[in-house]
Amino acid sequence: MVIAIGFEGSANKIGIGIVKDGEILSNCRRTYVTPPGEGFLPRETAEHHRQNIHTVLREALDQAGITPQEIDVICYTKGPGMGAPLMVCAIVARTCAKLWKKPILGVNHCIGHIEMGRLITKANNPTVLYVSGGNTQIIAYSRNRYRIFGETIDIAMGNCLDRFARVLKLSNAPSPGYNIEQAAKKGKKYYQLPYCVKGMDVSFSGILSYMEDKIDELLKDYTPEDLCYSLQETAFAMLVEITERAMAHCGSDEVLIVGGVGCNERLQEMMGIMCAERGAKLFATDERFCIDNGVMIAHAGALAFESGATMDFNDSTITQRYRTDDVYVTWRND
Amino acid sequence: MGEDLKDLKILKQGAEGKLYICNYLGKPTLIKERFKKKYRHPDLDENITKERIKNEARSIVRCKAAAVRTPALYLVDFHRSRIYMEHLEKSITVKDFIINHVKGETDKVKLGLISKLIGHTVRKLHESNIIHGDLTTSNMLLVQKVKSDDENWLDGELDIVMIDFGLSFIGSSGEDKGVDLYVLERAIISTHNDYPNLFEDILEAYKKQSKKNLGETISKFEEVRARGRKRTMVG
Ligand SMILES: Nc1ncnc2c1ncn2[C@@H]1O[C@H](COP(=O)(O)OP(=O)(O)O)[C@@H](O)[C@H]1O
Ligand SMILES: [Fe+2]
Ligand SMILES: [Mg+2]
């Protein structure tokens, strides 16, 4: 039996969660929300995490109803992400490891998302669409690695949504993506935007710059809601298309959506229709588990820990770039 | 749609549509039907479908002039979103061939021949400004070089046939060709991860196929690749 605590702070959320053999004991989180029109920057985000991490830690321990002594392993996000915010979590995790005399383990953030999704949905060996603020990848497992079959060749889906929200000056609370989703529900008129798919890869920079350049003109004939709707319909169709292409290529009949954009219900609906059309099954989770959180780091760390992975204290550093396929998956042997 | 195909044998459901086999004017025929995708907006769906069918038909014709083998095109039915083409009954995808018929690193000769075929063929496409748009080993078939009844034809001389031109377009820029190579590299690395040198061998063959100046292609390819490596991944 393994009890693991996970610290996540690679972007604008600070999350701490505790798991006991796949059972979630606590999942606590705070989000750094910036004013409309502004994105989050490393220094301010790190400051937010510093101000909140102790409260969140107390909360996570209390909710779980355990003492630090019962914890077997301390997990933290090693990367990828923003340097300064990552560092905040790494330092607190190291401190806890020393204070409580526990082993420490750095976890790849993307692997955290995937394993969390598999835990919650019980998907066995799915094609994974990982869509978040900074990542857009189509992933499938093969020979001890999560292999990247498709990817954005420029900006991530979430980044495109966030920046479009800034163009429209939508609120960043609770998240720009959520507000685009709500606005899109009221959109009626579809405006055709550049659609760019390259094999199993996609590109979103064209859509974004098109919107940015033409926004004043577009707003004469279309409401902001229409534009949110059109953006979602176009961009999500691209994501569904490359997911389907990867499924055909890999001979897979399961899809798992993870990452922050993955809680978008329209994306889930579109993916669900595609799956129904080819007799496949869709797995998705809601915002508690899709959006960055500490549990995903705790759970992925626990899997690695149980399979014998260890990390020297001196290696408990962070790295801004850390690809999903860099990780050797020791806990799967299928 | 698809009503009158009910009695036909469905070969498989591909990435974009359903494939049926039939007999058209006495020839083994494959029908690729791009059925309506209900997940996407009807206007977008119609545009994409039309576009893809046009691309596929156009590139198959252009490949002939480029001396790149493809299935012969029999009929394009825009109304029903179908393409009728030659069904290569005695064929195997390069993907299945590598996975099931190449036995580890020791089978170097076989793999070397395949890499050459792929590299040369992609180069020929690019020399004719045909950008495939979806270069994966699922979209390349191996067939007998010379038709015969040989049961063990996979051990004989093979030829490569390019398929699935839905995402193809005409492009002469180094960027277009570079991205095409990048898509191929990514597909090879993920699909055939047990052969880490496969793509390098393909690229070697690509470069050597013609003495013509590669121009910007390789530097653009490396640029797109570096962009991928440098991308920050927050969230
Ligand atoms: N002309 C053909 N002869 C034999 N098999 C084919 C032919 N065309 C396609 N196939 C098989 O069907 C699969 C899917 O066809 P493809 O044209 O690639 O469609 P999709 O766009 O759905 O990927 C191919 O990977 C190959 O196995
Ligand atoms: Fe994330
Ligand atoms: Mg194909």
Which features would summarize this protein structure in a list?
heterodimer; A: 334 residues; alpha/beta; Nucleotidyltransferase, domain 5; five-stranded mixed β-sheet; 10 helices; 12 strands; 20% strand; B: 235 residues; alpha+beta; Phosphorylase Kinase, domain 1; Transferase(Phosphotransferase), domain 1; 2 domains; three-stranded antiparallel β-sheet; 40% helix; 19% strand; binds adenosine-5'-diphosphate; binds fe (ii) ion; binds magnesium ion; phosphoprotein (chain B); ATP-binding (chain B); hydrolase activity (chain B)
List the secondary-structure elements of chain B in sequence, H or E: EEEHEEEHHEEEEHHH
CATH architecture of the largest domain in chain A: 2-Layer Sandwich
The CATH class label of the largest domain in chain B is Mainly Alpha
Please outline the major beta sheet of chain B: 5 strands, antiparallel
Q: Say which molecules are bound, naming each kind only once.
A: adenosine-5'-diphosphate, fe (ii) ion, magnesium ion
Morphology call of chain B: globular
pLDDT average of chain A, as an integer?
Answer: 97
The H-and-E topology of chain A, N to C, reads as: EEEHEHEHEEEHHEEHHEHEHH
Q: What's the total helix number of chain B?
A: 6
Report helical residue fraction of chain A.
40-55%
Give the overall silhouette of chain A.
globular
Helix content of chain B: 40-55%
Tell me the Rg of chain A in angstroms. Answer: 20 Å
Can you tell me the number of structural domains of chain A? 2
- Fill in the CATH topology of the largest domain in chain B: Transferase(Phosphotransferase), domain 1
Spans of at least 5 consecutive residues with low confidence of chain A:
none
Label the structural class of chain B: alpha+beta
CATH third-tier fold name of the largest domain in chain A: Nucleotidyltransferase, domain 5
Quickly name the level 1 CATH class of the largest domain in chain A. Alpha Beta
Distance between the ends of chain A: 22 Å
